[in-house]
Specification:
single chain, about 200 residues, alpha/beta, Cobalt-precorrin-4 Transmethylase, domain 1, 2 domains, five-stranded parallel sheet
Length: about 200
């Protein structure tokens, strides 16, 4: 299995307990740069993979494919961690790596462990409390919308569909004993709770 592990914003004491456990117990650990290597060094010796900061997607795709090929062989034999700064699901190198992996090596299972993201790190360090709706962008087209406190998930998803969104996920009480994740608007309940999320996406 290939596991993308968030290492947080850069402070050694902001790694999660689960991240540390995986670093210690995985068969192999890779990182995308020196900063990540320094964060994992107290727990494991990691190998750095080259992920150049380029905008040429032809070149990038070749790099991602080459790295995926390297990781696939080992991930089929045991647990391989790819540790990176921030969160592996939030504007992350791992997102591209996982996409290429699924395309060329569909037998490799993937999973992620969340880390403290740049968004919450920013809010913490700058005193910028976020208690109302906000937008996060890297300048690209918006393809994902997330609704927190989704107490009427079916209705929320139907409204998103009117805006062109086509794929929907409902989740509640994540990482708790009562966790519930539902894919597809047709399976959504009418009612959710305070700890519910609806995620809508489109091509």
């Amino acid at each position: 299995m290939l596991i993308g592990v968030g290492l947080g914003p850069g402070a050694p004491d902001l790694l999660t307990l689960r991240a540390v456990e995986l670093l210690k117990n995985s068969d192999k650990v890779y990182v995308p740069g020196k900063m990540a290597e320094e964060l994992v060094k107290p727990y494991v010796e990691a190998e750095i993979l080259d992920f150049p900061m380029l905008t040429d997607y032809d070149v990038l795709n070749e790099v991602w494919k080459k790295n995926a090929e390297l990781l696939a062989d080992e991930a089929l034999k045991g647990d391989v961690v790819f540790g990176l700064i921030g969160d592996p699901n939030f504007f992350s190198t791992f997102t591209h790596l996982k996409r290429v992996m699924k395309k060329y090596y569909p037998d490799v299972e993937t999973a992620t462990v969340p880390g403290i993201s740049s968004i919450t790190s920013f809010a913490s360090r700058t005193g910028s409390e976020v208690d109302s709706s906000f937008e996060v962008t890297d300048g690209s087209d918006k393809k994902t919308a997330i609704r927190l406190k989704a107490k009427s998930p079916k209705e929320i998803a139907e409204n998103f569909s009117k805006e062109g969104y086509t794929d929907f996920i409902f989740a509640e009480r994540l990482f708790s004993e009562k966790e519930n994740i539902i894919y597809g608007i047709e399976n959504f309940p009418e009612k959710g709770n305070y700890f519910s999320i609806v995620c809508a996406s489109k091509e």
